[in-house]
Amino acid sequence: MELTLLIPFLLIIALASYVQTVTGFALGMIVMGGVTMFNLLPIAFTSVIISIVSFANCVVALKGNSKAIDFKRVLLICCPLFPMTLLGLWLLNFMSAELNQLLQGLLGVTIIAAGFMIMLKPEPLSKPSHPGLFILSGAAAGFLAGLFSMAGPALVYLLYRQPFSMQTIRLCLLSVFLLSAVVRTSMVAAQGQLTLEMITFSLICLPIVTLATWLGKHYPPPLTAQAQRHAAFFLLILIGVSLVIKNLWPLLG
Contact 174/19 with Cβ under 8 angstroms? Predict the structure, then answer.
């Protein structure tokens, strides 16, 4: 495994793990976007690494905080998330083989949309949303989890509108990501696509993920929540636009 590949990958993993621990989301978007933008690894390979390291990130971040989780809403989200993950995974396998350039462009568009969603300032509702909205968001999250290991964009806006504490929102997101990671990795393994190289790469990443998660948990940045959103927005827009220009512009031309 070449250091010129491993070192930048580990740096991206560390940044993404820290950001997700602080905000409750963004690991998949930063890793998938950054790795694809710099042509470090294929999307299908990277998605498996994200699932495995997300598991480690979420376990460390959730340790000792389970009392603040709204398990009812997490269950509503996860019911449709699991079957839709399978659909997204099927589409990933098809597009990786036949339409890889279009797949990378679609990833860029998804990241841009997610960036703008992060910048929205939804007014908290007076009471929790209808259960159907959690189910619909879970379905969209599952599809994106299967396709790109990015369940966050479909969930962040809905959960941030709920009349819950910030801790509950963050921990609900992390809980869904944890369950999604387990299910997606199991599906990949059942299809015979979980290779020794993927496992080795993930094991190398785990100490970095654990350290970055611990740092995010105990030493968050001295920034307001709004400032953190602005930073995440600009980072995601940069990654997304780069992917769109690189992959979709030639097709349109």
Answer: no
